[in-house]
Design a protein that fits this description.
Distance between the termini of chain A: 31 Å
CATH class of chain B: Alpha Beta
CATH superfamily of chain B: Beta-grasp domain
Keywords (chain A): 4Fe-4S, Iron, Iron-sulfur, Metal-binding, Oxidoreductase
Strand order of the largest sheet of chain A: 2-1-6-3-4-5
CATH architecture of chain B: Roll
Helix content of chain A: 40-55%
Oligomer: heterodimer
CATH superfamily of the largest domain in chain A: Aldehyde ferredoxin oxidoreductase, N-terminal domain
Largest sheet of chain B: 5 strands, mixed
Distance between the termini of chain B: 55 Å
Strand order of the largest sheet of chain B: 2-1-5-3-4
Protein name (chain A): Aldehyde ferredoxin oxidoreductase
Number of strands of chain B: 5
Structural class of chain B: mainly beta
CATH architecture of the largest domain in chain A: 4-Layer Sandwich
Number of strands of chain A: 17
CATH class of the largest domain in chain A: Alpha Beta
Number of helices of chain B: 1
Family (chain A): Belongs to the AOR/FOR family.
Radius of gyration of chain A: 22 Å
Domain Aldehyde ferredoxin oxidoreductase N-terminal (chain A): 1-207
CATH topology of chain B: Ubiquitin-like (UB roll)
Largest interface: A-B, 58 and 26 residues
Strand content of chain A: 5-15%
Organism (chain A): Candidatus Abyssobacteria bacterium SURF_17
Chain lengths: 577, 85
């Protein structure tokens, strides 16, 4: 990957530049965060002309490296006001890799009221008017674009939420079935894309040459080693392919850390009804697909295809975080309700975590009752989908909704909703939620591994000891993995099998003719985090942004009846390295 | 005479086959001799040790040598992992 595409929305021009200088050797989150930190004024309005939307495949994307199809999307977040990287699976990263594109940087501001699409082929890129798809949601949009560009391309798009600049708007990526089911969900980057007047990106890699690999034989060996480790590890080789990500519902519930009814309890009485085991049975009974890749070259295959009661396609199998946010966190125990919400979010283009947390806060206000699945579906479809004043409040996320409805228990850090783990019962993830430059984000440093899953060691989830170090090390490692294009789920194998970790830098070395070692991986992670922390500091973030809402420190969570008590000093020291 | 303790057990994911079911919505009641450990319970349920990764007793993670008490709620898991948005 040797070029950056600069898309100037003010002049509607696209220019190519070589990757060099401070951006050389970077990919994925490393590249998006470096570009945002270097080029976006930290105090700018996230929806203004000074912000930039950056999309970057990882260093290994486009090659035969297993699970290397993650696309990083970055910018200044309208939700958090800080730097943001959200990544998605689907087919786009592999195509960008094959097209030799290290990043697409969308800049400036289009003439008011105009809407555009960017079409990228091996011979170049051009911006074209897209007024014919104005207001379209993702499924209809992809259907319309497919009539022109076919189904052998990738579509990156926003639904109506992105066009309407909602802070919970996502960026959608099409999957192997050409459906817009894979989203860079967190932090409202869909609104940034909307503010640029960019409705869709079409990536056509027809005729593109294979990604150059410096040492083919060494690459092949490293790929083999990596694949074997992923297949050998019980989580990546068996648990995830069989049950999908929602296999977590039962174990997080058993651990008493499963946030229920807006973080008021740690166990949900009907967890079995929404579990990964139940989801698998429903999928198989209705003729869906229970083991399925979301991107080319995935050997884990945790994706699935979910059918409705009439055995017709409804959505991809809702992921664990989606199931939790819109299920137990809302007192809802029906997978079909959750799947319908998932479909609506993918279509309108919304972050499933933010919206589930938002619905729970709305329920806490009494506007609708906990457990009201039909009410939740109606509100998302009729209010958020149609951008009524209520819908605009909700579409701007949990913090805004809590403020508008006078709710005191609002589970956000840096204004981003907490994902599916209660930090009072699983304290390591609380450190990550508090300190990640992304706001509350489980993927930034997934302490659930050692706290609950006994992967990569064991650190008791209920004690404060060891949580800071656990979170710090995982945040550094994650920032590096997010730069490679590898799916974060490879970490389950990497944490337990030394050869899997070796294979990562061996693949990069063989592709680029480098000689990196384990210390370089750590150094890369630190560099990425430092750029992100620097941006946030200049955007005005201080230590007080690195705190959980106070109710986590004062309200005891049943069944353990514990609070989050990792000290503020430890939180402040977490990313001091 | 050895007295027994009664525990309530749920098996998850691939372990449900040792209870002869696909999904366990309700826990099964198991009587074990007093002094039995989690490890003894695995043997009793014919679950090979190497298939158990994590066990919770009353929501707290416990090692195989944990001694069961009357009324304990036990959840037993194979290796699992996931979580995504």
């Amino acid at each position: 990957m040797n070029k950056i595409l600069r898309v100037d929305m003010t002049a509607q021009t696209v220019t190519e530049e070589a990757v060099g200088g401070q951006y050389a050797g970077l990919g994925g989150r490393g590249l998006t965060s470096k570009i945002v930190n270097a080029e976006v004024p930290p105090l700018c309005h996230p929806l203004g002309r000074e912000n930039k939307l950056v999309m970057a495949p990882g260093l290994l994307s486009g090659t035969a490296a297993p699970c290397s199809g993650r696309l990083s999307v970055g910018g200044k977040s309208p939700l958090t006001g800080g730097i943001k990287e959200a990544n998605a699976g689907g087919t786009a990263a592999q195509r960008l890799g094959r097209l030799g594109i290290a990043a697409i940087v969308v800049e400036g501001e289009p003439p008011k009221g105009t809407l555009w699409k960017l079409v990228v082929t091996k011979s170049g890129a051009e911006l074209l008017p897209a007024s014919e798809v104005k207001g379209a949601n993702n499924y209809k949009l992809v259907e319309k674009l497919t009539k022109t560009y076919g189904d052998k391309v990738s579509y990156i798009s926003i639904g109506s939420a992105g066009e309407r600049l909602m802070s919970a708007a996502s960026v959608a990526v099409t999957d192997l079935e050409n459906r817009p089911t894979r989203h860079a969900g967190r932090g409202g980057l869909g609104a940034v894309m909307g503010s640029k007047g960019l409705k869709a990106i079409v990536l056509d890699d027809k005729g593109a040459a294979a990604v150059p690999v410096s040492d083919q034989e060494a690459f092949k060996q490293a790929v083999k080693k990596f694949s074997m480790a992923l297949k050998e590890h019980a989580v990546t080789g068996k648990g995830l392919p069989t049950y999908g990500t929602n296999i977590l519902t039962n174990i997080i519930n058993e651990a008493g850390g499963f946030p229920t009814r807006n973080f008021s309890e740690g166990k949900f009485e009907d967890a079995a009804k929404v579990s990964g085991e139940m989801q698998r049975e429903i999928i198989l009974k209705r003729g869906g697909v229970a083991t399925h890749p979301c991107s080319r070259g995935c050997v884990i295959q945790c994706s699935r295809i979910y059918m409705d009661k009439n055995k017709k396609y409804l959505t991809k199998g809702p992921e664990y975080e989606t199931v939790w946010a819109n299920g137990p966190n809302c007192g809802i125990n029906d997978l079909d309700v959750i799947a319908r919400l998932d479909r609506l979010y993918d279509d309108i283009g919304l972050d499933t975590i933010e919206m589930g947390a938002t619905l729970a806060v709305l329920m806490e206000s009494g506007y609708i009752a906990f457990g009201d699945g039909a009410g939740a579906i109606k509100i998302i479809r009729e209010e958020v989908g149609k951008a009524t004043p209520l819908g605009r409040v909700l579409g701007n996320g949990c913090a805004v909704t809590g403020q508008v409805f006078g709710v005191k228990r609002v589970p956000v850090v840096k204004r981003q909703a907490l994902p599916a783990y209660d930090p009072r019962a699983i304290k390591g993830i609380g450190v990550t939620f508090a300190t990640s430059p992304m706001g509350a984000d489980h993927t930034a440093g997934y302490s659930i591994t050692a706290n609950i899953l006994n992967v990569g060691g064991t650190v008791s989830p209920l004690k404060t000891e060891g949580q800071m170090e656990l979170s710090r090390n995982l945040q550094i490692a994650t920032a590096a993995i997010d730069s490679t294009g590898l799916c974060l789920f490879v970490a389950f194998a990497v944490l337990d099998i030394p050869e899997a970790f070796e294979a990562i830098y061996e693949m990069i070395n063989a592709q680029y003719g480098l000689n990196l070692g384990p210390n370089d991986v750590t150094a890369l992670g630190k560099t990425v985090l430092k750029a992100e922390l620097e941006f946030n500091a200049q955007a005005g973030f201080t230590a007080k942004e690195d705190r959980l809402p106070m109710f986590f420190e004062t309200e005891k969570l049943p069944p353990h009846n514990t609070v989050f008590d990792v000290s503020h000093e430890e939180l402040d020291a977490t990313l001091r390295f | 005479m050895t007295s027994t303790v009664t525990v309530f057990v749920k098996l998850y994911a691939t372990l449900t086959k040792y209870a002869g079911v696909i999904i366990m919505e309700e826990p099964m009641q198991v009587d074990v001799p007093e002094g039995s450990t989690l490890s003894d319970l695995y043997t009793r349920l014919r679950i090979p040790d190497d298939e158990v990764k994590t066990a919770f007793v009353n929501s707290a993670m416990q090692p195989p040598e944990y001694e069961l008490r009357d009324g304990d709620h036990v959840g037993i898991f194979p290796p699992v992992g996931g979580g995504a948005c």
